[in-house]
Automatic annotation (TrEMBL):
GO biological process, any: asparagine biosynthetic process
Record keyword Membrane present: no
Catalytically driven reaction(s): L-aspartate + L-glutamine + ATP + H2O = L-asparagine + L-glutamate + AMP + diphosphate + H(+)
InterPro entries attached to this UniProt entry: Asn_synth_AEB (IPR006426), Asn_synthase (IPR001962), ASN_synthetase/amidase (IPR051786), AsnB_N (IPR033738), GATase_2_dom (IPR017932), Ntn_hydrolases_N (IPR029055), Rossmann-like_a/b/a_fold (IPR014729)
Annotated source species: Pedobacter cryotolerans
Gene: asnB
Active-site residues annotated for this sequence: C2
Name the UniProt record assigns to this protein: asparagine synthase (glutamine-hydrolyzing)
Keyword ATP-binding: yes
Keywords assigned by UniProt, alphabetized: Amino-acid biosynthesis, Asparagine biosynthesis, ATP-binding, Glutamine amidotransferase, Ligase, Nucleotide-binding
Amino acid sequence: MCRIAGIIDSNRNLDQIQADVKSMCDALAHGGPDDEGLTAINELTVFGHRRLAIIDLSSAGHQPMMNGNLTLTYNGEIYNYKELKEELLKLNFTFKTNTDTEVILIGFKAWGTTLFAKLRGMFAFALNDSEEKKTYLVRDEMGIKPLYYSCRPKLLIFSSEVKAFNNTSYTFEENPDWKVYFLAFGHIPQPFTTLKNVFALPGGSYLVWNHNTHQFQINSYLPITGEIKINTQAAATHQVAEKLKNSVSNHLIADASIGVFLSGGIDSSIITLLANEEVKTNLNTLSINFVEEKFSEEKYQKIITNQTSGKHTAYRVTEKDFQLNFDEMLAAMDQPTNDGINSWFVTKYAKENGLKAVLSGIGADEIFGGYPSFKRMNLVQNLKKLPKLLLKISAKLPSEKLKRIYYLSYQNPIGEYLFLRGFFTPKAISKILQIPKIEIDDLLESFPVEKNIDHLVGQERAAWFETNLFMKNQLLKDTDFMSMSHGIEVRIPFLDQHFIAAVAQIKKELLFNKTPKSLLIHSFKNILPEAIYNRPKMGFTFPLQQWFLNKEEIVNEDLYSNLYVKALINKFKTGNIHWSKIFALYQINKYNK
């Protein structure tokens, strides 16, 4: 797991390009503390790298890595690299290292761009082919690992983090729309960022830059979705159990210390128990708890650790810890977000526990219908049948949740998501940012959405929203930059390509049930204690409502110039607004200064 950066520029000299890439890599040092590298491929092209060594800890894993006409700078893990290596050896290719990095290089020699779909893992990389005079930017299917790019005439810049773009001699303007997106979504949705003309490369795609024409295009490498093959409960539970067990086994491949984050919920408990079957006494697990009992899942964590044989470490996060580390958490954010604090702490403790990588249960809720949105899709469809005028009038209702019905007046599926998970309404955003409401409506209603959602209905539609808008834009992004700020890799078995493909073969009536995640639970009833799955759902949350109330720089309305925002701060003090909204307002206010 690493950080990467690079520049291709026909307008500047090599010394300046190298200086800029070096500066970008310096800004990314936290994500690659073990090694650094800079390679001038030609007088116009420089790749940079910061390394976090997980597989093959020796200097043989130094990057950027070259093989003949190919140069690679790579961030991620390829879990099937040994199998691919065996295939390549049979094709008479030879290897100099034991790294998964070299497998990508040799694999491209053998298979070209068809390699990308063969890779099983999480990855973002840049690969230059000096013979073909092309550079490829490639990102994993689910977009677990970040990759941002900016193109201008005869110029391509890329990086693992948006912050690095401003660490160059190039000028990047602020994206005038990011605050609207942030206040509507609670995050900045891909492909947009805080910077104008700096975009996130879509997951499951590759950008190819032609050095002769200085032009680029973005192509998908995703396979065509397979047909439904599993129509019985027995076959479905067997499929889920076998494929997830295989995924966990692959995600434990490492030459450095690795552990599992155990929250006490269904998802992390299953991952922990499967990992325990694989490594037994060598398993490291860690958990977070609080003095505030209603937020603590310690008793559920103990139920699982009583079934495991490795080392478990529990940490107690206090309000004092939050206050002391607040500024550092903000600094760790690559992009503004209304969350991420939990990820910062758990990876901080993983680092202190001597781990290099941690397995996480992210993804199960999106795949198996674990969120309330899955039950609300009928309501969404019924409300959308109302006259548009009536939907718009709902903005005047007293309830903040009911005000979100307004979003269903949009002739864009994004309105459904914003009804389900939206943050502030357009009217509120208008008052916060002091811009016309019609501009906000126009921006949000024109938000680009993939056409494949058009044929999805009901819970399948909810799964698309939760996966492509919430998980990819918030959970994965927050997890990545918070964990990499500590130099920790977070691995996500539920998002393994083979597991995702296997679940896609299951009949939707079996996948989505009246009981949230029932298929997942049934698949592991042989190992999962009933006390874990037969209890109310509790997300991995902190006692932040009270902690934010006690933070003067956030709740002091005198620090805010906007009268409407001042009123919202006062509403928060009386318990009428969720802490995450105030956190968003604080970030907007801080950015404006």
